[in-house]
Structure formats: C-alpha cells, structure tokens
Amino acid sequence: MKKLLQNPIYLLSSLVFLIGAVVLAYLTYSNLDKGFIFNDEAYYLSYYRNTGESLSFDRSNFFRIFKFLYTPNIYHFRIISITTLVLSNFLLCFSVFKFLNFKKYIFFLSFLGIFIGFQSWEINNLVLHQYIGNTILVNVGVSLILFSLITEKKIILILAGFVISFTLFDGNTHAVVNAPLFAFLIFMTPKEWRIKLIYFLLGYIVGIIIYFTFLDTLAHFFHQFKFLEEYLHYNRKQHSKTFMVLWALYLFLNAILPSIIVVFLLWKAKFSEKSLKIFDKVILFVALATFGLFFFFQEYFVFSFIVLTHFLAIKFCLSKTESKQNKYLIILLLVIPYCLTFGSQTWFHLRLNAYKFYYFLLIFIVLFRSYKSIFWVIGYLIPVSFMISSFHNILHVKGWKDFVFTEQTEKVKVNGYDLYLDKGRKKDLDDLRPYLHNQKNVIYSSNHLMGYLYILDAAPPIYYYFTLKDYIAFIIKKVGKTPDDYIYIESNDYPFYPKEIVPLKFVSHPEKYKVVKAGRFTLYLPGNFQKK
C-alpha cells in the first residue's frame, strides 16, 4: 500500500483512464446495434458491398485495404472497427510511455488511448473508413518504429514500413503523413539513419507491391485520378483550392503563428530564466482559459485547446533534461493531426475531434515530465472525468447523425442481419420497399437518402453528395444510359435543388413517367418500371 501511495499521480491517472475505458466501452458496445447514419455510413458501406466498382470521385481505397475485417453484419463490423481503433491507440500509448521510460503503471496509463478512442467517436460513424483507417495505420506504424528503437532490432522496421505504406492509398491527401514519419525516423537515429531507412523502405516497397498485386491495379489507381479531374471540371466546391488555402491560413493563425511569436520572444530574451517563468505564467493562463471554455463555452474550447497543446510542446522542447529523441517524438505527436486532417474538406478544428487523442497524449506527457505537479495533473483529470461521466448523454441527444439512440427500437433486416432503427425510418423503408428494392438505377435528391438505397439494395449511377445536373448527366452518359432509364426519389425534407435537377424536366420523355407518393417521399417512375 505504501508503494502505491508513493506515486499518487500515476495511480490516480491509471484508475481514471481504466474506469473511463470500461464505462465507455460498455456504453459503446451495448448500443452499436442501434441506429444508422443514412449519409456517411451508407456511403462507406456501399464501397465494401460493391468492392469499389461503382464510380466515385473519392480516391480513398479504405475498402480494399481493410476488406479482411469487413462483415455485412453492420453491428459486428462496428465492433471490429472501433475495437481495432482503440487497441491501436493503446499500442501507441504503451510504446510512447515505454520509449519515454515512464516508470510506473505503463499498461494502465495506456488505457488513456482506449478511453479517448471511444470518447472521440461517440458511438458515431464507426464502420471502418479512411479516417479511422489512417489512424490505425499511423498508430501501428509509429508504435513499431518506437519498439524497434527500444529493442534496437532493425528488422521490426520492415514491418513498420509495410504498415505505413498503405497510408498512400487509404486516404488521398492524408498521405502527407508520410513526410513527418520519414523525417522522424531519420532524425531519431542520426548515426545509422541510412541502414534503418533501408530496412523501413524495404517493408514500404513490399507493402506497395502487395497492394498492387492483390488489392488493386496500377491502371485502376491512376484511373481514379483521371476521374477526379473529370469531376473537378464540373464542380470545384467539393475540392476547392480556395478551401485548402483557408484551411492552411486558419491553422497558421490558430496554431503556428502563436507558437512562432512565443519562440521568437523567448529567443530575443535569450531563453533567460525570467522569460521562461513568464512563459510558464502564459501557459497557466491559457490552461485556465481552456479549462473554463471546456465547461462553459464548449463551442470555443477547441481554439484554446490547440494553443495550449502547442505551448506545452514548446515547453517540453525547451527542457534541458529531455533528450532530442524525446523532443522529436513530442513534435511528431503534434503534427500527426495536421496530416490526417489535410485535404479532408472540413475545417481543422471540426475534424480535430477524430484526432484529439494525439493532443491528449501529448499534454499528459508534458504535464508529467515538465511539471511533475499533482495540481496540473488533477486539472487534466477533472475534464477527463467529466467526459467519462457525461458520455451517456449522447444516448439522449439528437446529433448531426439525425437519430436518437433511445428511439432505435424497431428491428430491421439489413444485409440479412438485425439492426434497430426508429419507427419513422422503419415506416420509410416499408413505404419505399415496393419501388426501390433491388433497383439498380436510382437518382436521389440528397445524400441523406443514401441509407435507404443501401438497406434496400438499390444503387445510383454514382454515389454523390451534390446532385449537380451537368455532372449527373455526364455520369449517366458515361455508364451508357439516359436520364429516362432512372427512378428519381425525392424526400419532403430534402427535395431536389430546383437550380439543378427537376426530374420531369431532366428526363426527355416526362409523359412516360408516373409520379407516386410514398409516405414522406415522391417517386418518379419510368414507363418501363416493374416492381421487384
């Protein structure tokens, strides 16, 4: 007992992380058979079902890489996906703590990764896609690099390179994560970086060869780029160059610029003891602001959270007691989220929630190594404890996924397996089934309807997020059909955008179409329509 009490910070943190992992795991696994995200989740699952043969402007090949984990039972697939993710988080935590030579409770402290993994995704959109997939690949790859450095066994780098190579294909622009990983390996071993890089590259090349031998072809891979170019001809909104500029500008203003200013001022002060003490006070102020925003103004919390993470990373890198290798590891944890959010077509601070694990791990390390104060760690554990205690609230809140877990009481067969949906969507499926079941030529008014097509085994000419008239016409012609070959489905809640597609104006022979009302939907059925 005395030995336990000699390290109260380690013991307290271990207990909180362990309790958090157990509580969130229970709440997550007990609700994974409920609800369905009718846009994104259906979009991702459609790739697994048709092995990526349907046309798409998305160059991610997650469904090829992780097909060995796929099962048409959505409940089981969600379990497989989130379990693989949180275990990869655990592995990274364990390898990082081991590399940094944490003395106590490394195994239990690593439950931080499991807890944050569950908390980040909030039982939401969990079928394995490019964002979850790249996180798994990076976590495992970095862990293997660290284990190689710890054990001084170069052969492990072959396996690390093999795993990391798949990030080239899993998520288009997210492949930029390769740059800091290569730099990390080189800087970590300045005396023998060449030989270690050769081992790493050997595994990397083997991974690429296996990908193009068993999972995809070079011709198809490059065809994706050509198809993307065709898509951009019709619409720049989805992959806007302006957006990327604004993304970089936002990140610069919120994260990089404050860090540059701090380092410049410290340099001007010659990193004197006085300037470093002032910097500690600045960090304390930002930490208190972050703490307050977390509890009272959640919508602004992330801005302060990003600044705090960067300031703590600077604090760690200025330490005279930490090795260069430890500092390189902290910098890597800091930049990984940038790479995994790059090109994701949403703002960094909105996507950050999926990758905040790296920030929570970084902050925890710096608090332990640079401050070694129970007050700082308690300040860290209070929000963590709140995240644990409030997690159950998501079961009662209607989020962007547009369903409430407690309302998912109706059993529906999806791919032949049970899934529970709410009464409204169960009725929608009953209304639509006579018209859409097994129909392979369907054009829908909004991506919110993808789920109905997926469950009813219907298919569009392309899975799309925007019903762009010229683009859809181009795709229809590309697959050798005409607008008159398709069923059009329109939702009362998400109708066709009048400036784009108006079904009876889009087709050549509207007189041959029959308009049918089915619950909350309007269906435009071609003359040759036959119920299946």
TrEMBL record:
TM region(s), chain numbering: 9-29, 75-97, 104-121, 127-147, 154-169, 197-222, 242-266, 330-350, 356-382
This protein's name: Glycosyltransferase RgtA/B/C/D-like domain-containing protein
UniProt keywords, alphabetically: Membrane, Transmembrane, Transmembrane helix
